[in-house]
Amino acid sequence: MKLHSFILFVFALAYLSSCTNRPLNVLSDSKMEAVLYDMYIAEQEIKNNSAVFYNDSVRRQKLLQSVFEKHRISEAAFDTSLVWYNAHLEKYIKINNRISQKYDAELTQLNKENEQLIAQFTVIDTIVLYRSPAFFLQSALRENLHDFCTDTAALLGLKQFDVQCLVLGVCDTVPPVLTFYIESKDSTFVHLDTIRNDGLYSAQYSVPARFRVESIYGNIHFPAQKQHSVFVGNFTVSNQKTTVLPQGRPR
Fold first, then answer.
1. Are 77 and 25 contacting, i.e. CB atoms less than 8 angstroms apart?
2. Measuring CA to CA, which residue among 143, 138, 146 is closest to residue 228?
3. Is residue 236 a contact partner of residue 242, using CB atoms and an 8 Å limit?
4. Are 176 and 168 in contact (CB under 8 A)?
5. Tell me: the pLDDT tens digits for 181-210?
6. Under 8 Å CB-to-CB from 237, ≥6 apart: which residues?
7. Is residue 45 within 8 Å of residue 63, measured between CB atoms?
8. What is the spatial distance between Cα 158 and Cα 207, in angstroms, rounded to a whole number?
9. DSSP string covering the chain, please?
10. Neighbouring residues of 19: CB distance < 8 A, sequence distance ≥ 6
């Protein structure tokens, strides 16, 4: 091989090597991933507390600097690595995909733990005001109405009422209607809801705090006389009170 050809070969090899090999001052994939993840967390904290960080650039810089100190790198090393990874997009995209997956997994776990903690310190007291055995509404036989009312003594201090039932056989042309009355000394609140779908039906009714409820009553009925029947099961009127216990006193 002639000398000039050999020199060209060496330069070409060096060029290819520089394109494919990572320089010594560039962070490895795993190190860059760890730093970027903590950097994104820090930036998210800045975004969520923009009012605190907006006029305090020193505090913002300290938070970002804490990421470099945690991973024992300099800001210059991070910037150099960032430039290199931006020039090698395939690696950079893979790193960001792994970061996204890790973030989603940790967020899901955090939400799960938060829900468990809330459940641990939450007590739901349910007062059942009315419950009916299962029944059919049969319009053709004129059994097209089911009435309900509650014990007045149980209503003391209650302002909110939950209605639930299982409904099967609902037809678009003949949907059943729930009528719910809440009566106070000076006013009567009337709620009219059409039940349009099979399955669990749920509704919630309430009155302003200044009203004292004296009675609640109502019915489920067919407004039209057509050949049809609907099954209604576990029709319940109740009041639910949710209490969050002080931390340290799990139920």
1. yes
2. 138
3. no
4. no
5. 999 888 899 999 999 888 899 999 988 888
6. 128, 129, 130, 131, 148, 150, 161, 162, 163, 216
7. yes
8. 9
9. --HHHHHHHHHHHHHHHHHHSPPTTS--HHHHHHHHHHHHHHHHHHHHTHHHHTT-HHHHHHHHHHHHHHTT--HHHHHHHHHHHHHSHHHHHHHHHHHHHHHHHHHHHHHHHHHHHHHHTEEEEEEEEEEE--EEEEGGGTB-EEEEE--GGGGTT--EEEEEEEEE---SSS--EEEEEEEESS-EEEEEEE--SSEEEEEEEE--TTPPEEEEEEEEE-SS--S-EEEEEEEEEEEEEEEEPPTT---
10. none
Least confident piece of the model among 103-112, 117-126, 235-244: 117-126
Residue type, 126: T
Total residues found in the chain within this entry: 251
pLDDT digits (tens, 9 = 90+) for 214-227: 889 999 987 766 66
pTM for this entry? 0.48
| Token representation of residue 198 | 């099979």
CA distances from 7 to 4, 11, 14 (A): 5, 6, 11
